[in-house]
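Please, structure for the following, as tokens.
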Amino acid sequence: MEIKEKVERINTLISRESWLDMEIHGMNGGNLLIAGSVDFTYGHSLEIIFQDIFHMSVNSEWQVDTSKTVLYVVNNGEHVNINISYQIEQGNTLFKIIAKDMKVPFYVSAKDIEFNTDKVLYYKKENLGENERIASWVK
């Protein structure tokens, strides 16, 4: 699947929620994992994985307006200014994230993007359902 198709699918998944909180859930080997949830007390149901990131400018947590487009691939003149300002190397894609009630967007420059819709639980549960898993840090 092409990057633009993945971004469209992610925006569609986000638009199906009444509201959505987002937060950074970690970095592993150059990959940035952002989780989305309607209630982080119990778990999350969306993971956005930016692969082989070169640059990021994001808060640790934020809310999104699910009635609007949240994630963009930046291809207009805006990407030139960001790429020059942060000396981003060619071959990376510039992604823009629009957070609710923020005056400026967030940016991530990465080689690729993936997403996962498993329901990740923050508590122990026996007999997990299809596409359910327990967060790795739950003991």
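The longest helix spans residues 3-15. The chain is about 15% helix and 40% strand.
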